[in-house]
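testing teh design pipeline on a random one, pls ignore if ur not involved
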């Protein structure tokens, strides 16, 4: 009897061990966060897909630059120091500003491009060291280091695997009056990337304009909702490619956007420097979603308008219409 009891207990222990192993195997394994993943406190409020391109970007190569003074004007020096690839948000250009003038200054970058493609870069501000000077100012006699960050998702969307050239404009103002002191455009920083490297471009989509002024294409984003899905305002509906073929700056805006025949606001607007390219995503405005409560998208149409970058002229052109009708993509079964 004891032998049978021991045998039964032994069998139960083996069975329990197998069940525990099976349950453990079915649980997700805890892994370290990817270096490109932001914490919940750092993540942006708007989600962008990891990839909506027809081709995949190459793994990012770690190039380097030579230290150089890129601006020396009105007792203000700007030096580029290095390319830093340690930031999980993306590679950054390390630079410093030396204020040898008699006044506090503030600055910001704009029209940032990498390999001729406009990139929504972010940069750090100099914070005033005391309560009497709370602005983002660099005081007389001070030198401070900053970084200009190129987001990884933007580089991936642009198929940038090697940073060959960085171009930007720098605006420097008087720290108190905000009067413009310097507006330096077309500052270029070249890296040691292989000169034979050829930048690829994703141009798969419906051609809406293709002339001597602009080339614009659009296609449904990967996150476009299915036939029975409600649109998510935090996810893009359309992917857009833009190419400025003129020396003057251009502004591209969405025009006459309609969903299910209802006019909605998209807020899409992109600035392109001379001879620059850009990628963008078109979203459904959250207010439009709340107002109309779209349960699905049966039809979407939009055009794009091209204007001079300084808005000094009438619109230069309106593209042909991008039109999506769900019956064309998902015809009803007979």
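output:
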């Amino acid at each position: 009897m004891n032998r049978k009891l021991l045998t039964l207990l032994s069998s139960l222990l083996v069975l329990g061990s197998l069940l525990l192993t099976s349950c453990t195997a079915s649980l997700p394994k805890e892994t370290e966060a990817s270096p490109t993943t932001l914490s919940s406190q750092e993540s942006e409020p708007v989600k962008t897909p990891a990839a909506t391109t027809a081709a995949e970007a190459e793994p990012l190569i770690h190039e380097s630059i030579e230290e150089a003074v890129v601006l020396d004007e009105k007792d203000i020096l700007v030096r580029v120091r290095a390319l830093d690839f340690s930031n999980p948000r993306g590679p950054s250009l390390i630079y410093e500003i030396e204020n040898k003038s008699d006044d506090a200054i503030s600055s910001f970058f704009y029209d940032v491009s990498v390999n001729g493609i406009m990139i929504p870069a972010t940069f750090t501000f100099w914070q005033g060291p005391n309560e009497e000077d709370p602005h983002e100012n660099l005081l007389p006699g001070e030198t401070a280091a900053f970084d200009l960050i190129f987001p990884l998702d933007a580089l991936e969307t642009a198929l940038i695997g090697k940073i060959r050239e960085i171009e930007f404009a720098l605006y420097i103002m008087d720290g108190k009056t905000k009067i413009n002191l310097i507006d330096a455009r077309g500052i270029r920083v070249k890296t040691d990337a292989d000169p034979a490297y050829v930048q690829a471009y994703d141009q798969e989509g419906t051609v809406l304009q293709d002339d001597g002024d602009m080339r614009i294409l659009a296609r449904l984003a990967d996150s476009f909702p299915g036939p029975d899905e409600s649109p998510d305002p935090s996810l893009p509906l359309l992917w857009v490619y833009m190419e400025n073929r003129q020396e003057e700056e251009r502004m591209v805006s969405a025009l006459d956007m309609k969903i299910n025949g209802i006019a909605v606001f998209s807020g899409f607007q992109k600035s392109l420097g001379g001879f620059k390219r850009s990628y963008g995503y078109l979203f459904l405005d959250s207010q439009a979603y709340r107002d109309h409560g779209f349960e699905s998208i049966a039809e979407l149409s939009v055009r794009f308008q091209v204007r001079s970058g300084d808005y000094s002229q009438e619109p230069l052109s309106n593209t042909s219409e991008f039109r999506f009708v769900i019956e064309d993509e998902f015809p009803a079964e007979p």
